[in-house]
Amino acid sequence: QTGYITLDEGYANTGSCCSAITFIDGEKGILRYRGIPIEELVEQSSFVEVAYLLIMGKLPTRAELQAFSNALTRNQMLHEDMKFHFEGFPPHAHPMAILSAMINAAGCYYPELLRPEVPNHFEEQAARLLSQVRTIAAFAYRKSRGLPFVYPKPQYKYAANFLHMMFSHPTEDVELKPEAVRALDLLFLLHADHEQNCSTSTVRMVASSGANLFACAAAGVCALWGPLHGGANQAVIEMLEEIHRSGDDGRKFLEEVKSRKSGRRLMGFGHRVYKNYDPRARIIKRHCDELLARLNRTDPLLDIAKRLEEAALQDEYFVERKLYPNVDFYSGIIMRALDIPVNMFPVIFAIGRMPGWIAHYREVVESPTRRIYRPRQVYVGPPLQHYVPIDQRG
Ligand code: SDX
């Protein structure tokens, strides 16, 4: 078609890009994975089925889903030599640093999978990365606590296996409460993709140079780590804990944010695309109440979060800037209820986002007009000038 730009030509020259994976309408608060509303997927699907949908572009048949699940089980163990890498990290190393390094390391152990001529090399890479990201994350947690590694078990499904590797004792499996497993599966599903956000754009950028899938995912983890992006879920809880410790009911903190003197922001609020309520936040908020009730737990931070939301949504400062809760505002409450430590929250986000990154990697590398991304700039530096020897400088 005349004037039609391909996926790559658009990004390669302008920095914006077409994609067929996820649709967002920021004004209406709409999110669809491959055209299917997130609300339907939350109610009827699972993280592994949604991962297949995003990566393969369609809902799987029963046989396809079973084969995909078998591939994840087949690939869940790390190469034994990878354990030695963990020894090199200090105990206080942030798990996102470990995750990025170990994902790249994992890619070194399967060079045959990085060769396009190997049959099903992409599917095998995808299954290996999607399955092993969980094992790497759990091992990073165990290492940070000085605990022995707990290996995945083939009888456990995706989210259950992660909780098993995180919290089981080597000789006794942790009790995997169905409501806890379902809540984690929901979090992974809600984070699975989100169009051209900072970290996904990073994955696409790196993929356009021809780097392998593991290198692209490792770069995505680094971009996601920032507190303005995937690190916000950790920053939200640290903000709520600070408010709780101070005895403030939230109003003093909001005044500090509005004064702009400290540069503090209401973390978990605002979004570049959503100028309405993030549909994921609405779903997570509802599940916070349900999960805490089922686990017979309460969390004072949830009460503070709800008070902050109620006050902010009635406050002109936030209303005129169209600042609403985003995916990170309530997600940490669920992770706390699952006893996941706060520095692992961005890691949970990264595990959930892995299918989206894999899907976007595939979209870039399989594009018929694939070109390296090279956004142009507007030069605002000095005009032409000439070198001045050091003795003649002021
Ligand atoms: C994610 O892109 C994606 O899809 C990301 C994501 C995904 O799934 O991949 O949805 C995940 O990253 C969600 C966002 C998580 N980050 C946070 O919660 C951090 C807090 N929020 C912000 O810093 C901010 O809202 C961003 C980073 C999310 C969006 O930044 P923008 O669009 O660049 O907004 P901006 O910085 O231009 O702010 C516009 C105005 C400014 O005020 P003015 O200078 O116009 O007077 O709104 C203010 C900002 O000061 N503002 C906030 C605010 N966010 C924006 N003021 C107080 N608290 C906030 N949270």
Automatic annotation (TrEMBL):
Pathway entry: Carbohydrate metabolism; tricarboxylic acid cycle; isocitrate from oxaloacetate: step 1/2
Pfam families: Citrate_synt
PROSITE patterns: CITRATE_SYNTHASE
Any GO BP: tricarboxylic acid cycle
Active-site residues from the entry: 271, 328
GO cellular component, one term: cytoplasm
GO MF annotation, one: citrate synthase activity
Gene3D superfamilies to which the protein is assigned, alphabetical: 2.20.28.60, Citrate Synthase, domain 1, Cytochrome P450-Terp, domain 2
Record InterPro entries: Citrate_synth-like_lrg_a-sub, Citrate_synth-like_sm_a-sub, Citrate_synthase, Citrate_synthase_AS, Citrate_synthase_bac-typ, Citrate_synthase_sf, Citrate_synthase_typ-I
Catalysed reaction, written as an equation: oxaloacetate + acetyl-CoA + H2O = citrate + CoA + H(+)
Transmembrane segments: none
Family per similarity comment: Belongs to the citrate synthase family.
Protein keywords: Acyltransferase, Transferase, Tricarboxylic acid cycle
Annotated protein name in UniProt: Citrate synthase
Source organism phylogeny: Bacteria, Pseudomonadati, Verrucomicrobiota, Verrucomicrobiia, Limisphaerales
